[in-house]
């Protein structure tokens, strides 16, 4: 499997509010930056969307080291999501899981790859984390009334794949 490093970040100006996400994909000497924005969202949704978009951008199965500064994202995908799915997408207190649509999309994206999840402290000098933050925050600042809202989709049947992702911006 091809080794790839992905750094992700999400940003929200207000929570909820205008938001942006970014993913930086690195393979050897090659690097690709992806980013996008929504006019009404939450920081957690942008963190999750960054990971989904980064993983879905890979054209074939890869061995991925994915870095995030979001404990919600890392703990959710490595610890909580399997229990939620087993419990019919309910929390331990029987409440519906927030962001189920994106958790399902993330599980689908992860399934194609061998992913190792890493937490990195935000705003602590990690160059690629800082760049992902800059891209995500920049996207949030560019939000206009023409941008889509990012509202959680209603619960979906097991196995359904959400089509939640408008086109993203690419740069290299």
List the helices and strands and how they pair.
Blueprint: E1 2-12, E2 17-27, E3 30-41, H1 43-56, E4 62-68, H2 71-86, H3 100-111, E5 114-119, H4 127-141, E6 169-171
Parallel strand pairs: 1-4, 4-5
Antiparallel strand pairs: 1-2, 2-3, 3-6
Provide tags for this entry.
alpha/beta, Nucleotidyltransferase, domain 5, 172 residues
Mean pLDDT score? 89
Major sheet summary line = 6 strands, mixed
C-alpha-based Rg, rounded: 15 Å
The H-level CATH homologous superfamily, spelled out, is: Ribonuclease H-like superfamily/Ribonuclease H
Overall helicity: 25-40%
Shape: globular
Write down how many β-strands occur, each being a DSSP E stretch of 2 or more residues: 6
Q: What low-confidence regions span 5 or more consecutive residues with pLDDT below 50?
A: 155-168
Q: How would you classify the helix and strand content by structural class?
A: alpha/beta
- The first-to-last residue Cα distance is 23 Å
CATH level-1 class = Alpha Beta
Major sheet: arrangement of strands: 5-4-1-2-3-6
Provide the CATH topology.
Nucleotidyltransferase, domain 5
- Total number of domains: 1
Strand content: 25-35%
Q: SSE string, helix = H, strand = E?
A: EEEHEHHEHE
Number of helices: 4
